[in-house]
Predict the structure.
Amino acid sequence: MSLSAGVDVGSTYTKAIVLDEARTIVGRAVLPTGFKLTQAAEQALTQAFAEAGCARESVGYLIATGFGRHQVPTADAHVTDLTASARGAAFLFPGTRTVLDVGGQTMKASRVGEDAKVRSFRLNDKCAAGTGAFLEKTARYMGYTTSEIGPLVATSKHAVPISGVCAVFAESEVINQLSEGAAPADIMHGAIASLVGRSVQLMKRVQMEPEFTLIGGIMRFTRMVDVVRQEVGGQVNVPPDDLVQFVPALGAAILGRRRLAKLTETTA
């Protein structure tokens, strides 16, 4: 059996995917990246291989992506996370033309063509107010953990305005809103609305067009997805379950299948 694999070494989490010949996911894993990037990649791959019931030798092609992709010495090739995300999004939703990826440390928007290749892109990696870290900081200031953000904001009645100019100033703004009697859930909702506002501006800069596909760990929060839908209109796709975190790794594995097929043709 010929397998391909993709590993996405992200700033916060490392994800790995194993695909069989039918492009079916047979193994996957996710774990915190930490500061030992090579070790995180190998651990994620080991777990994904174990779930797939295979050894590294059974994988015909491995592609690494993410900001730590060059720290994966066992990879056969390395691609940018923009390229991998576009491939993964188009595989799940063939009509994808705009991809929004909101992670813990970065936000990326890209416009893709019918061939799933990136036509234009913009990044927001200079300020935490445009990333998942902004939501984490806001939650932490109110005494909540990251895992509690989803359930908390689900109880919100309306969004409290949060400027989101800078994550560093979030604490004082949250304290001010709390002192005025605002509910934590509504403050969290406001922080999400602020983040969506930044994401929409980023997508406009790449000349966004439907269909939109949303990926990244922050898209696990359904309220985030709901607010994006309200802002952009058009068809908005979200990968099911926790697959929303695995799209770059999936795209890398898809590219691995293509390159493996070309190698097989050449050999034949």
About this structure: The chain has two domains: 1-78+245-268, 82-237. The first helix runs from residue 37 to 52. The longest strand covers residues 25-32. The radius of gyration is 19 Å.
